[in-house]
C-alpha cells in the first residue's frame, strides 16, 4: 500500500480521533470535574509508565524489522514469534513490580481500585502488536478497527457517565477499549504471520530492545513519569490542569504524528534497498509539511489558549491555561524530533544517538522535576516537558549536522515561521473585537486559514500546498 493511501487512512483515523475527542472531552471534563480528571490522569499515566517496561522498544523494533523483511516469510515468522516471547517475559516481570508498587506506595494504594482495573490495560498494551500492521503498512485495518471501537466507546460514555461518581465506570470503559483493540489485533495477526513458539531467536532482539527500551524509559522521565511525579508530590487538581493541557496538545499534534508513523516503515524499506535519493526526497517533504502545519497551529493555540480551555472544559479548568501555553510551544520542536528520530535515525539504525539524546533529556527532566514541580505544580511540569524536549531535539540536530546524514532545512523553517506571524495579529484582533469565546475561535480559525493559504500559494509558493490545491480544484471541476 502506498504512502498516500496509508496517509489517507491514518488521517481519517486521526480526524476521527479529533472528532471523538471534541465530542467526549468537553463532556467528560464537565461531568467528572478537575479533581477526578486529575486522579484518572495520575492513574493512567502511571500505568502507561509501567507499560514502557512491558514492551521496552519492541514496537520500534517490530515495525522496523517487519518492514525490512516483508517478502521473507520464514524470517517474518521468526521475528514475530521472538518478539511475542520477549513481550511475555517483560510483561510478567513488569506486572509483578506494578502490583508490588500498588501495595507498598501509599499514594498509589489510595487509588488501588483504579490501579487494579488498570492492570488489565497494562497487559493489553503489551500485546496490542500494532507494530505488526505498521510494519506491513496495513493502516487500513488499524483505521477501521480504531474508528469502530472508539465509536462504540463514545456511545457508552454518553449512556453510562452521568455524574462525578462515575469516574470508575469511565475508566473501565477506557480499559475495555484498549482490550478490544488488542483482541482484534491478535485475531487478525494469524492471517499475516503464525506464532510458532519453537521458531524463535531471542538474543539479538533482547539486545536491541534494551537499547531502544532505555530510550523509551529515559524519554518517559519527562513525558510520562512527570505526570506520575506531579501526582506524588502535589495533588490531583494540579494533575487535572496539566493532564487537560497535555490532552489538548496531544489531540492537536496527532495529525502530524499520523504522518510520521506512516513514514517510518517506508523509510526503513528504502534504506534496506539502498534508495537514498527517494529517502532524502521524502525527508524534505516531511519537513515542509511539518513547518506548514505546525507553525500556524502553535501560534494560534498559544494565543487562544483561554478560549480553547473555556470552550472545551469549562471555567473549572482555568488553571490549565498557562500550562497549555507552555506545552503548545513544543508542537514544532516535537515535530522535528519525530522526523529526525523516527524517519531518519531509527531506519538508519543510529540507536546510539537516540540513546545519548534521551539520556540528556532524562537528566535534565529529572533535575527540573525536582526543582520545579513541587513548588509550581502543573506550570512547573509543563516547563519540565518544554526544557527536556528542547534539549533532545537540539542533540538530534547537532548529530545530524555533524554526520551530514541529511541537510536540515533551515530556510524552510525560517520562511514558514515568518509567514505565520500575522496569524498572531489575526487571533489577538479577534479577542479584542469579538465577545463570545467560541466565536473568537471560529472566526480566528477561518481568517487565519484563508490568510495562510493565500500567503503560501502567492508569496512563498509552497509546493505541498499548491499540489493539494490543484488536486482539490481537479476534484471539484470533475464533479
UniProtKB/TrEMBL annotation:
Keyword Isomerase belongs to the record: no
Keyword Transmembrane helix found: yes
Protein name: Putative O-antigen transporter
Spans traversing the lipid bilayer: 7-28, 48-67, 79-102, 114-133, 142-161, 167-188, 209-229, 241-265, 286-306, 326-346, 353-372, 378-401, 413-434, 440-460
InterPro entries per UniProt: Poly_Biosynth_Transport, Polysacc_synth
Membrane topology: Multi-pass membrane protein
Signal sequence, renumbered to the chain: none
Gene, per the UniProt record: rfbX_2
Localization per Swiss-Prot or TrEMBL: Cell membrane
A Pfam short name: Polysacc_synt
GO cellular component terms, A-Z: plasma membrane
Alphabetical UniProt keywords: Cell membrane, Membrane, Transmembrane, Transmembrane helix
